[in-house]
Amino acid sequence: MKRSYLFLYTELAGYTIACLKALRKLDPDARITVVHFPINKEAPFQFDFAAIGSFRPVQEFVSYADLKGFSNEIQPTHIICSGWINKDYVRLCYAWRKKAITVLCFDNHLLGNLKQWIWKFTGAPVLKRSFRYLWLPGERQAAYARFLGFRKEQIRNHFYSCDLPVFMEKGKWGLALKANRFPKVFLCVARYIPEKAYTELWDAFVKWQELEPSEWELWCVGTGPGFESRILHPKIKHLGFIQPDQLDAVIEQAGVFVLISKFEPWGVAVHEFAAAGFPLLLSPQVGAADAFLNESNGWLISSHQQSDILSAFRLIAAQSDEALLDKATNSMQLAARISPQTWTQALLDM
Q1: Which residues pair with residue 105 across a beta bridge?
Q2: Can you list the alpha helix ranges (DSSP code H) found in 75-113?
Q3: Would you kindly state where each structural domain of the chain is located, as residue ranges?
Q4: For residue 46, what pLDDT is reported?
Q5: Same fold, 4-161+338-348 and 164-335
Q6: How far apart are CA 2 and CA 77, in angstroms?
C-alpha cells in the first residue's frame, strides 16, 4: 500500500523542505501533500517545491468542510500536524484518528505555569484522543508531553533537523580557511524581536569594546520589527535577511555563533551553525542547546545581565585559535547526529 502523507504546517522553513526531500528520496512512491500558513514576510525564504509533492496554502480552504473534503480526496495514511494553534488542523486529525496515523508535533517547553496546568485539563484531553504519536525535537518537549498525559511509548524524537549535508559542506570549506587564522567575529542569526535579546547582546558588546577594545566584531543576520531601531556601532554589522544559499561568505568570515534568546523553544539555526563548524555561545533558554552544546564546543551565559554576557565575551576572546578550531570541529560532530535522514526514519518507523 502506497503511503499518503498529509502535513499540516504553520510556517515553512528551509529545513522543512530539506526533510521533505529526504522523505521523497526514501519513500519515492508516496504521496506528499503539504498545507501551510503564508510565508513569513520577516523570513522570506525562497523554496524549491519541485519533485516533492503538492503544496497548498491554508487560506485556500475557506472552511473546515473544505479542508475535510480535500483530505477525503487524498486519503492520507499519515497526518502530521504542527502544533494546535489551528483548530481545524486538530479537528481534522480527530476525524481521521481511526483511519490514519495521526502525529502531533510541537516545541513547547514544560514550564509548569498556570496556563499549562489549565491546558492539561482543558485542551490536552482533546489532543490525547486525536493523536497516536507525538513527534518532538528534544527532552524539554518530551517532559511537557508526559506532563500532559501522553505515554512514553507515544513519543518520537528528531522532529527538527537542519539541511545537514549543505551546512556540513559549508563548514568543511570554512574550517579549511579558518585553520590559518580563526575569525574574531561573533555571528548572530535571528529575527529582530525582543525575545532574541538583541538589545542585551548589542549593549554588552559595546560596553566590552569601551572597556577592552579589541579586534572582535559582532555581525547580525536577520530582520524584524526591531531592525529600524538597531544600534549603530563601527564593530557591529547588520547584514539583514540572507537566503541560506547566500550564507557562504558569512560562514567563511565569522567565527563564533551567538544566540542568547530569552525565549527559544528550539532554534534550528543552532544546528545549522554547529554543522557549519562554529563554536557556540547560547543562553540556557535555547532548547537546541540540549542537543548541540556541551563543554567541548561552546559556552552558556549565566544570565542576561550585562556582566554575565561580558564575562562570556572575555572567556571566548581568551581562547587560542587552536582551541576555537577544536570547538568548531566538535560542533560539527555533535550536529551530525541529527539529519533529514533521521527525521525521515523517525516518520517511517511510525
Answers
A1: 82, 135
A2: 87-96
A3: 4-161+338-348, 164-335
A4: 67
A5: yes
A6: 9
Torsional class of 185: left (φ above 0), alpha (ψ -120 to 50), beta (otherwise): beta
Please, what's the b/e burial string for 306-339 (b: 16 or more CB within 10 A of its CB; e: otherwise)? eebbbbbbeebeebeeeebbebbebbbebbeebb
> What is the fold, at CATH topology level, of the domain defined by 164-335?
Rossmann fold (3.40.50)
pLDDT tens digit sequence for 39-82: 766 666 667 777 899 999 999 999 999 999 999 999 999 999 99
pTM listed for this prediction:
0.94
Dihedral sign for Cα 257, 263, 266, 268, please: negative
- The position carrying cell 526514519 is 345
Q: b/e map of 138-169 (b: 16 or more CB within 10 Å)?
A: bebbbebbebbebeeebbbbbbbbbbbebbbe
Report whether 8 contacts 86 (CB < 8 A). Answer: yes
The SS3 of residue 236 is strand
What CATH number matches the domain at 4-161+338-348, 1.10.3720.10, 3.40.630.10, 3.40.50.2000, 3.20.20.70?
Answer: 3.40.50.2000
Which residues sit opposite 220 in a β-bridge? 188, 238
Rg (the chain; Cα; Å)? 21
| pLDDT at 43 (0 to 100) | 62
Q: Which residues contact 259 (CB under 8 A, 6 or more apart)?
A: 188, 189, 190, 196, 267, 269, 270, 280, 281, 282, 283, 286
Indicate the SS3 state at residue 185: strand
What CA–CA distances, in Å, run from 48 to 5, 15, 81?
A: 19, 12, 21
Query: What's the grid cell of residue 242?
Result: 540572507
Spatial neighbors of 129 by CB under 8 A, at least 6 apart, are 94, 97
CA distance 161 to 268: 7
